[in-house]
Amino acid sequence: MNKTFLIIQREYITRVKNKRFVLTTLLMPLLIVGFIAATTYMSIKGKDEHKIAMIDENGFFKGNIKDTKQLTFEFPTDVDTSNYLKKGYTDIILIPRFKAGDKMTYLIRSRKRISITTESAISERINNAIEDNMLQGAGINKAELDSIHVQSQFAELKAVEENEGGAKESNAALSYGIGFGSGMLIYITMFIYGAMVMRGVMEEKTNRIAEVMVSSVKPFQLMTGKIVGIGAVGLTQFLMWVVLIVGLTTAAQAFVPHDVMEQVKNLQQANGQLPGGGMMKAGEAAQQIYKVQHTISTANWPVIIGCFIFYFLGGYLFYAALFAAVGSVVNEDPQDAQSLMLPITMPIIFSFIIMSNAVQDPSTPMAVWASIIPFSSPMVMMARIAYGIPGTVPYWQLALSMVSLIGGFLLTTWMSAKIYRTGILLYGKKISWKEMGKWAFRRN
Amino acid sequence: MNKILELAHLKKYYTTQKAVDDVSFSIEKGSIFGLLGPNGAGKTTLLRMITGIFYPDSGHIQFDGKTFDPLNDIIKIGYMPEERGLYKKMKIGDQALYLARLKGLSKQEAMEKIKFWFKRLEMESWWNKKIEDLSKGMSQKLQFVITVLHEPKLIILDEPFSGLDPVNANLIKDEIYGLAQRGSTVIFSTHRMEQVEEICDHIVLVNLGRKILDGTVNDVKQQFKENKFHIRLSEVPSNLSNTSFKLVDQKANELTVKIENGFKSNDVLQYFIQSGMTIESFHEILPSLNDIFINLVEGTKATTRAFQKETH
Prior knowledge:
The structure holds 2 protein chains of 2 kinds. The longest helix of chain A is centred in the middle third of the chain and has 35 residues, at 172-206. Chain A folds into 2 domains: 50-141, D-Maltodextrin-Binding Protein, domain 2 (3-Layer(aba) Sandwich); 172-441, no CATH class. In chain A, strand 5 (159-161) and strand 6 (168-170) form a beta hairpin. Chain A has a 4-stranded mixed β-sheet. In chain A, strands 5-6 form a two-stranded antiparallel ribbon. Helix content of chain A is 64%, strand content 6%. By secondary structure, chain A is mainly alpha-helical. Chain A is built from 16 helices and 6 strands. Chain B is an alpha/beta fold. Chain B folds into 2 domains: 3-222, Rossmann fold, CATH 3.40.50; 226-285, Alpha-Beta Plaits (2-Layer Sandwich). Chain B has 10 helices and 14 strands. Chain B has a 6-stranded mixed β-sheet with strand order 6-7-8-3-9-10, with helices on both faces. Chain B has a 4-stranded antiparallel β-sheet with strand order 2-1-4-5, with helices on one face. A 4-stranded antiparallel β-sheet of chain B has the order 12-13-11-14, with helices on one face. In chain B, a hairpin with a 4-residue loop joins strand 1 and strand 2 (18-28). The longest helix of chain B is centred in the middle third of the chain and has 16 residues, at 166-181. The chains are: A mainly alpha, B alpha/beta. The A-B interface holds A 1, 3, 6-7, 10, 14, 203-204, 207-218, 425 and B 48, 51-54, 71, 74-75, 77-81, 83-90, 98-99, 101-104, 106-107, 143, 146.
């Protein structure tokens, strides 16, 4: 049997059988789902509530300013800055007398520092009230104004992008989520599995196994066997996560009765107008779930998953070879590993930064080029692909990016193999990047 | 062609010292060859060149009649390095199977051989243990089995007995004989002379990166003998004196004599016979390899091997 295959087999089986692998594979999806649930809960429940005393010298805010879930505006008469806390208010707002059209500065005093979101919520309410006041001044009566407010709430943005097969619904938030999520996953896996390759190589070197091994196999077989074996571990873990996450979400959906879901579906398709007060029956939660499901279904999943697997493997192979080269020159001292890893981790971190920008604005020249250069393409291209092919990413860019990534990992593997071959059997000497470079470009 | 390995003018220089400096020797097929030398003499570097781990800076290696091709010939070599290398977390049976299959054995073949050797060296109960649970001597035995499992043409053992108790050391020693008899050549690197004397046919002594001795154990001893003889007489002699020898040591009726130049052992015997003394035993005292070794190596310092500072 092929020796490289034997090595792959060993690397794969020893890791997959490991208890830690089984645990992380099972716990990670729970952790992710738990994390999402926790952040959602916190964003709903976690906001602090403000009871605000308004001291308004103009007298028109009363009745014009609306409360929100977090903000309650009251207009007490016997409160000032010295006693608002004792009276049970958390904040006090002092609005001086001002003329419409003039710049006005008002003051808020609080028990504790207020957050940015609270600040902007308060200022939005105040500005809306001023606007309403001005509209009323221009002759619109209050009843009309209220009806306008209610009606304008019905507007909802539905973006549609031009596509070859006709226009298609698009969703920027979803693209952002997919782009960032897949970029993030590639980032994490590069570090986890890259470091795993490096540690594996270091183990073989420091335990002097390499010396025994190279009397049976070529160093190149040893290196590629390790890289491919660990890559297969990564892919396995990954597929299991996908299966588990899909399974968990399906299980969560099962708690919503089927007929309620059907009703919501009909409701949504009829643009919110259902005869017989159906709106009342379908709970808000069920509507949310339907909306999420519907939004998710607008993405081009086969392309995204296909590209993800390609860039996941390509990026892994590109960097794993470099990690193997570093592992092969490290001696017992883990400090050496840290400093030698830096030139590899820097481009990964840098790509992550480009990716987090590209995911907001996928067509800047920076994002385009970073998605073609193999150092950063796995993460950045995934961020862009989420926005659609060939709308955001033309076919030629995707092809160029894929070809250069394949070329890139062949090149890093070829160079690393040379460094590895020399490094793995060299003991006691501290190797610099300069020397590694010499080995990499040496002929034969 | 009955040479398995021929080395010609091998050189390997490190930045600070000449690890191997122009060494040439050859090894007969089926022999047990001892590569000796004090610590830091360059033995391990030499072995790593023979196993293809290092490329020599200059010189030529001929393996089994052809120029040594590390990538393809390596399979015919079993190498047991001085520092043992095994996966700590792997089970012993799995490990042996894995390494055997990497040597090119099929799974069944490998299993058969492992079972054979495990039984032979009383290691059957170890199969499911991990390396980290083994003592040093135990992992030594395992490493030996892994090295010889595929019955390579050339077996290189670097300090094979370190950490082994006398019983296990003898067990391994017998196996080494057996392998040589079945046609393998064994290179045996050590600085423990008493083992070499027992096992090896041919030895090479290196010191400071250079070869300083090359020959069969017997030749070397003959070369360094001091013409000393041991004589046991039936009674304690009263007075001894002859031009043919000098009395070196006497313990009651046991004498050690050194034969003077120009005389033979028969001259000494004749003297005793003519003096009417009964000779119970008479044999030559050959120097031990240990003595020769110490004699040759003593006084040289490792620093003499360093490059001379260039003078401009």
